[in-house]
Amino acid sequence: MKKSIFIAFVVSLGGFLFGFDAGIISGVMSYVNPEYNLDALQSGWVVSSPSFAAMFAMLLAGRLSDFFGRKKLLLYVAISYVLSALLSAYSISYEMLYMARMLGGLAFGAALILAPTYIAEISTGKNRGKLVSIQQLNIVLGFFAAFLSNYYFNAFNESGSSFLNDANVWRWMLGVEIIPAILYFILLFFVPKSPRWLFLNNREEEAKQVMYSLHDEQLATEEISAIKASLHQNRNQNKVKLSDLFKPALRFIIIVGLVLAVLQQITGINAIYFYATSIFKQTGIGTGAAFKSGILLSLTTVVFTVLAIFLIDRVGRRPLLLVGIAGISISLLVCAYGFNNATYQLTESEIGSFEGLDGQKLMPLATKDYTSDVTFKSDVKQAIGNQEYQKFEGAILEKATDMNANLVLFGILGFIACFAFSLGPVMWVMLSELYPNAYRGLAIGSLGFVNSFISWGVQQVFPWELDNLGSTMTFLIFGVIALIGFFILLKILPETKGKSLEELEKELVQS
């Protein structure tokens, strides 16, 4: 069991790097936006471009791993992470930055597919839930490390450090990712090839050696027997095509997987993670406090992901998902309520207190009261220009905003907590369980493509939503979608706890 845990942790370090990248960019954009004078769509593209690239990596990764092996592809993933971190840190333009991040997107798209596939193939029905959930734990540890890193880099920069300044601090934020990327590459040499992949490729002796190294003799023998029986039954299905996923026998499990893949992202989780610093700025707590709140957000994620790992093989997948999605909906609606009650006003004395900003341009706004964040931000941008607004956004909103910031913080933390013990880890666990051996790589890759497409769309549109729909409507939309998702899952979601992959195949694949 210890060896299985170690292997699962190493293989899913790609998830750590995904979480690190997602957390880092939320702080980086505070500096990149004014550096390159980005508008809302350009800002969204810098953030979302890795997810756009990840869509295609997810679509191909499972299929390629069926041919070349899970481990070999993971080594290429680690190398891509290293290159992405270096090129991002040395970017000399907006275009170079998003292209470097797209290389990282190819890496984490492949990693998010390969890790749960691999881990499910070395696990047993008794421990598969917690082992596959280690990937989500690594993701949230990556978030935590990134928010902590961002906080200290930002603090050193604001302290007047001669080493860091607004022009280079974001480069250090991005470049530090090379350290875990190199560690990931090295540790991958200590994990074996997937035994089920070896069986699929007629390398039976190698597969048996791996199985006996992972489990005691009796359990390994039982697993080998079940795998061989399943492969014999599906001996003509090794070379599956995308069209095979639409067979009537697979219809139910494809629908379940599709609902999970869409729901995990369309409720806005990556909007929260990737734009955490910006969201907290909208509450008026200031830039420094926004970076601090990111640490609290990521710590909450870690705690509740650990809770999920403890519960997933005890309570089961279905209860965690249903409770979690209900909590997600409630939390998002609380955020919408908090933002809806906000007002915005700048006094003459506050306008004169912005160091480095020509306050005279804002004086015509001093007598105005705003109930809409959209109108307020639009007027400020017209007065001082987009680039100056991006630079001083945190300070301006801190002075102008009157709202219950703690209520919004409570809602966001509630959303993060509920996601962390439900849709976050459980979706990947269930995707790794639902599909027969011969279809698993292709099915998870295809659903991963859908998952990443939704994620990209949410990230790309989110800055535009904040600018044009406002915080209230944005969170209201997410909350209503989550509520609809709860009732869909209540009707169709099966329970997969405690069953071998071969048992689930017999139960869920309709003959």
UniProtKB/TrEMBL annotation:
InterPro entries with a match to the protein in the record: MFS_dom, MFS_sugar_transport-like, MFS_trans_sf, Myo-inositol_Transporter, Sugar/inositol_transpt, Sugar_transporter_CS
UniProt keywords, alphabetically: Membrane, Transmembrane, Transmembrane helix, Transport
Major facilitator superfamily (MFS) profile domain residues: 7-497
Localization: Membrane
Keyword Cell cycle: no
Transmembrane spans: 40-61, 73-92, 98-119, 131-152, 172-191, 249-275, 295-312, 319-339, 407-431, 438-458, 470-490
A Pfam family: Sugar_tr
Listed SUPFAM superfamilies: MFS general substrate transporter
Superkingdom of origin: Bacteria
Topological category with respect to the lipid bilayer: Multi-pass membrane protein
Magnesium listed as a keyword: no
Family assignment from sequence similarity: Belongs to the major facilitator superfamily. Sugar transporter (TC 2.A.1.1) family.
The protein, known as: Sugar porter family MFS transporter
Origin species: Maribacter aquimaris
